[in-house]
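Q: Could you write out the predicted structure for this multi-component system? I'm mainly interested in how the pieces pack against one another.
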Amino acid sequence: MTTQILLNLLIAFVWMLLNESWNIVIFGMGYAIGFFIILSMRRFFPEPFYGRKIIFIFKLFSLFIIELLKSCVVVIRQVTRPKLNIQPGIFRSETVLKSDFEITLLSTLLTLTPGSVVMEIDPEAGVMFIHAMDVTEFRNSITKTKRKFEKAIIEVMR
Amino acid sequence: METFITIIAGILFTVGTYLILNKNLLRIILGITLFSHATHLLLMAINGLKKGAAPLLGENAASYTDPVPQALILTSIVISFALTAFLLVLGYRTYVELGTDNMKQLRGNTHE
Amino acid sequence: MYLLYIAILIPFFSIPFIPLLYKYVHRIHTGWFVLVIPVLLLFFFARYYFVQQTIEPLILSVPWIPSLNIHFTIYLDSLSLLFVLLITGVGTLVVFYSIFYMSKDREKLHLFYAYLMLFMGAMLGSVLSDNLLVLYAFWELTSVSSFLLIAFWYHRKRSRYGAQKSMFITMSGGFSMLLGFIMLYVTSGTFSIRELILLGDQISQHSLFIPAMYFIFLGVFTKSAQFPFHIWLPDAMEAPTPISAYLHSATMVKAGVYLVARLTPIFGGHQEWFWTITIIGLITLFIGSLTAIRQSDLKALLAFSTISQIGLIMSLLGIGSMSLNNQYSDSSLLFAGATLAAIFHLINHSIFKGCLFMMIGILDHETGTRDIRRLGGLIHVMPVSFTLTMIGSFSMAGLPPFSGFLSKEMFFSGALTASRTMGSWFIFIPIIAWVASIFTFVYCMILIFKVFIGPYKPLPLDRKPHEAPFGMLVSPMILASLVVILFFFPNLIASSLLEPTVKAILPQAFANGREWHVHISAWHGFNTELLMTMGIIILGMLLYKYLTKFRNIYESIPLKFTLNQAYDNGLVAMERISGKLIRFYMYGSTPLYLSYLFVFVIVIVGGSLFLLNGFIFDLSNNAPIELYEYMLGFTIVAAAIYMVFTKSRLISIIAVSVIGYIVSLFFVIFRAPDLALTQLVVETISTALFLLCFYFLPRVSKYVTPMKLNIRNAIIAIGVGMTLTLIGLSTQEHHLFDSIAEYYKDSYTLAGAKNIVNAILVDFRAFDTMLEIVVLFAAGVGIYTLIKLRHTGRKDQ
Amino acid sequence: MSNVLILPIIIPLLTGMLMIFFRRHVRMQQWLIVISLLLTIGVSTFIIHRIFRQGIIVLDVGGWHAPYGISLVGDMLSALLVLIASIICLMCSLFAFGSTSNDHKVHFVYSYILLLLCGVNGSFLTGDIFNLFVFFEVMLISSYVLLALGGKKIQLRESIKYVIINVISSTLFVIAIAYLYSITGTLNMAHLSERVATIGQDGLLTTVSLLFLSVFALKSGLFLFFWLPGSYSAAPPAIAALFAALLTKVGIYAIIRTFTLIFYHQPEITHTIILCMAAITMILGALGAVSYWEIRKILAYNVIVAVGFILFGVGMRTFESLTGALFYLIHDMLAKALIFILGGAIISIFGSDKLRNFSGLLLFRPSLGWLYFIAALALAGVPPLSGFVGKVIILKGGITEGHLIMSVIGIVTSLLVLYSVIKIFIHSFWGETLLSEGDQKATGTSALLPGSILVTFIIAMGLGAEWVLTYVEQAAEVMTNPSIYIDAVFKQID
Amino acid sequence: MKFTDVFLQTAIKILVFIIMTFSIYVLFAGHHNPGGGFIGGLITASALVLLYIAFDLQSVRDMMPVDFNQLAAAGVIVAVLTGTASFLFHVPFLTQTFTYVNLPLLGKTELASAVIFDLGVYMTVIGTTMTIITSISEDQK
Amino acid sequence: MDAKAMIEIVVGILVITGTIISLISSLGIIRLPDVYNRAHASTKSATLGILCILLGAFLYFFFTHGVSSIRLLLGIVFVFLTAPVAGHIIIRSAHRSKVTLADISVQDDLQDYLESQKNVESK
Amino acid sequence: MFDTIMLLAMFLLSISVVIALYRVIKGPSIHDRILALDSIGYIVIGIVAVLSIMLDSHAYLETILLIGILAFLSTIALSKYMEGGVVNGRKSND
Ligand code: NA
Ligand code: NA
């Protein structure tokens, strides 16, 4: 993947040389051209095309935004209710993710989504303790969301 | 606005002075901090406020506020920060070493 | 010609060599080397004695600080010469005497002679300088050398006490005299005595003229141990005896006399001059002689006798000064007689007192005591000493055939002249003179009879007394023979020394070429003076006989009321009272000090704002203000007021940070982005430091401030706030000039920067910024050292 | 343009910074400080020489001419003070070589001494009022650190007071500058002088000038000296000497500069206040000096007396009195450094500063004793030492101006000064010898070299007063005639 | 089970890069926009403090063996030396100069000696701030 | 309706939305029973509210001044990244310093786990 | 109209700050205070953004990011301090 990006940059640079012009627009053009060159020749590389990742990232992002909006609505509803009706608590949850970066990503996303905040993490054992605003109501949805995230993250990272 | 800010600065001066006259070391330092805030507000206020855009030529405004007080305040902020930091640590060391933050107990003459 | 300068400076230049000689030529008594200097000087100046009678006074001048009119001008006339001869003559004898007196094995001779040379040079300088400030410089040096000499045996408490006392008193006088000299300068524009004399009446009308005189008097009277400043002299007797003989009787204490004589042409003729000198002189004469009787220490007795004798000379100079008074111009020559008497007695006194001191020194040396009560009958073991002491004492008592008789008679004449010429109620002058002379007679008798006559008491003495070695006796012998010679041949010096000296003191009296010649004769026929002398002898004898009863009267005077006691208590009180006063101001408490500062600002700055009508107020130019700005402002006020009342540290710290953050928001509103950024970060770090340094520490002390104090503080606080606000409100509408800021608005062309504030910081006023980071650096590393140095310190412990 | 003016500021500054990199190399630091100070002294001498020949030197820092940039203005007053300050700094450093613990040395004591000098020299040289504030801060922060360095209880206690009081007065300084800028729209002192003269110093400006006076009074120990005795007696000897000789003098300089150059239009108010404060200062200082029995306290109060006396000369604002004040100022800087160095040596020998416990030092430390004795006499203005001439000129001015009472106060207090310093001499050098020959033989010896040099200066300054006066009078010329200063600053524009 | 700071540490690793970039931007943009050496330095210091918090003092020291006292001093020296450079051109001390050059990628770019001066400020601020913070926190251990 | 008015409407809506979300999240900080629950309000709502405002500001400057402020975008990213970490750290710290859960809490697996660990150790 | 909206936004944000300040003062736990301060930081970011729209100046955009950094830094520092009593320097998690 790194090779592909570097190659792409090199193409952009060469493009600038050819144009004898040193500005960001020409560079951008060169990069775009390189992108398509690599896309068309992707089968020559041992690893998959790096543009794919961009799609995954975009997917993850949109997933997240939706979850964020949802979570927001939930919290606002809770807060604006005249009487609080919640059953908060901390529950244990497992994850299949391993690397630091993956776990961080997951934690970020989880914390930003409805009624859950990550508290303690043991990356070795793949265990997280999560505080939920309403354990009974959200246990299932959180676990579901977590699975979705894990899947998206794995797609991006591996 | 100028009058308003000057009066606020005045109130800060008053409170600052009151705290400085206290015998509690922390309150003295807090009073000094208030004093320097008040000084900066005063320095701004008495040289005219909102008399133009921020002194950045990129803003393309017709007039700019007086940049000199700003520059002076910047220098003054940094210096008072340096002094406050030093004073705080000095106060902390005194507190730890002498076991008091009461300036009355930090009198010299009696126990010499 | 410039040999004169060298002559004055030789003693000073010799000082560095004395310790060397002492250290490397220890075999030979250092005194022998030192002796060369006074001998040389004596011969050098004696040369002038023989030429002086005919030629004009000698003037030499070298600039020292010309822009202040300070020139090192030497003025050698007969008055100076008289003193120079005394200084070098007695100096020679004293150094010679000291060679035998000071043990070369036990004493720190290098210091002794160094001090002595310092003194000799200073004294020569004093009497030879025409410039008042140069004179003053040497004058103070004599005090300094006297200080050092009195404390020569500095391990003794009494020596230190005496040294300190003499220095403090004589230097007080000296300092005041300096002020007097400067006043004279302000009246006249010159420090030169000769020029001052020439200015004459022009300056006497000046309002500072008489004050100057009194300031100078303080110098004169302290130096010459006049009442009530005489108290230092008896304590100065802790000095080695040669020193007492030299400084504290023959020369230094006469510096005041010299100065009075020297300044008589300027001040003489003024009533204030006459009255002050005469009265002080008489009082001193009286008190001195009266007190001398009471002394049991021989040196103390001599000290008081010196005091009284100088009082005598002073009063004579006072009387003599009247010859310059226009009112008495007819009898000016009669008054001049008093001056003559003063000069003659001055010479006599130096001689016989020098002799007596040396004899006391010998007694002390040979018997180990100076206590009259332990001495007696020494005539048998020390006949030579007895003879010499007797000559000195009789001369002092004013008995023939000794020179003292002559000057004593002249003293009476002077006193009588005053009363005859100036009015009958001036009769008190001769009466005091006479009574004091009776006492003088008594103590002279004590000196001879209690020590040499009567039962011999060898038992209480520390060592077996015997006659002194010959070398030690040489100096007193010379002096004693002078006493006798001067009685029989007083005219040896009459025309060559006395007459020109009197003329130098009273130049105006002889200005119109009046003929006046000095001729001294021992026999005047049976006149009042002789009768007075006879009265003295008879009454003195009686008094001596009933001395014990007389003494009892003395003893009844409680010690508390003596001047000495007053001095001692005065010093203690001075230290105590000043201590109390200063500790009242310097209480040591920071809040108090800060309230001084703030009250000072309120009084001086606030006061001036109102008294000078500095307050101007005008709302018209104010910028508009929005609601949220009011809100922010009131939040600041609320937080600030909350800080006053809260006891919680945390809330105080939070409140101050809230204020800080709102201030940075205000900076945004005031169009100051750089400020806002900086303030934000700085506020955050400050808050962190506040918390780190104070919040998380355990609370150790709780204290309540009394309400009264709080109210006082509140008043001060409001005062400060008001003052600063009112000035602020005034200046905000008082922009009298265009700001320099206009210039910076071209910063893009001038400095290539669009951010004007940044351009000011890194270019226009980059120097400020450079130093600002130095401050920051210093604070940072300072904090580092504050914390680290302690750690290493602990490791050491 | 004359970059030479910046050198007395940046030589110490750069050397001080450089030393941070040689923290553990104490010997290296000592060499560095000596070389740097000798350089500074040389440069200052050169500057004096040039000013003497060619008049005031101006350096527009950054190339921005007055009043828009910061100008350094070297007139004779500044240059003389810079030279003396640098000399004193060298002396105190020499003393510090032997009298300061190694702990101090590796904790940047020399760096801070140099920074202090940088602040002091800068304060003397700057021609910009805000820049003066900044230099004050450089000086003060260094003094805070030097005072607290070591962290003994008494040091912490006194430095916290000192810092608090000074920080507050610094804030007042900024406030005063704010007012002044608001009214006049400028910061350059020559420009200020010109502008204040145009409007003739109205009531508001006088009020502002009095705020400046309050600030400088505190810094110089004029009446508001309560911070001084404690802090001077807590500092290590070499540092105390440095403080005594330099710190208050910068305040005095600031008063001289502002009240002869800018605010001289209402002397009946401002200068009368200065005179009254001077009188009270002399009296209180003398009271303190005679009442204490601790060397440090006595000497600290002596500093105060001198401040009062110098300001007496300044307050009269005549050519003569200003000449005297400057002469006395120079003398006092040298003499105070000297006496504090020697006093510090005495303290280190006895290990205490309680006079009553001292005795008989003269036997084993004769040189120290005689140096001290001369210093004591110089301090009291005994002729022919340096103090005498200054004293005479000021008194002459005082009497000429009709300030008889002030002059008497001046004389009486100088007498009390003499009493107090001689008290120290008598009690520490005379009396039975308590120390034995081998006892602490080495202590106090580091004072001898700087002590002798300073004594030489003091004697030379008294005997060669005329020579010194030619320079001092040139300085007084500028003080009495601000237009010389103003013209020099603005001549660059033409 | 072993609870770790993995979330914090990884997040901070990323954040520090953002903050550092920002601080350098602020440093160099200061000439035309709000900012400059002082703010830039403080922001860098914030980044370093974050590192200290997330990791321990020693490991950060191992990563960046910088004596902050010396960094601060070096900053002052840099600032002063930009001033003394003017000695070479016989212009007054601290005379700043600027020029415009065409650089690849950036186009017409201003080169100002004031930026070097500001760099000195930047270094000093970092050095000082870090000195203060590390001293105090070590003391309170 | 001109372009400027359009932009102003969009920006106005975004800003007001953001403001209201922020206000509500503040209310949440007041109303919710313990620090753990409040963290939810703070991390999520505040984030979203500020994001809306910043987005509004970005659009405003982009369309009125033609400035695409990288600083604002960076700000958005930064808020995104820091808010969850901050929330996580605060409540973790709260739990570690034994701040009790509100009474209405129904479950604390972490506490149970820690206690069981302690029991194991003590055995 | 637009300006009024912005003023309204300012007003509401200020109220949010005041509300959060209440939590800062009230506590009860130190963590509540930290949390509230963290929120205030975010709200202030909003305020500055609105202010720069009002002042029509992009001069304050640096401030936004800066506040973000500082708020985050303070939150982390305070929490870590509370956790272990030391802001930094602790060996991490062992
Ligand atoms: Na700055
Ligand atoms: Na800047």
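A: Regarding packing and overall arrangement: The longest strand of chain D covers residues 57-61.
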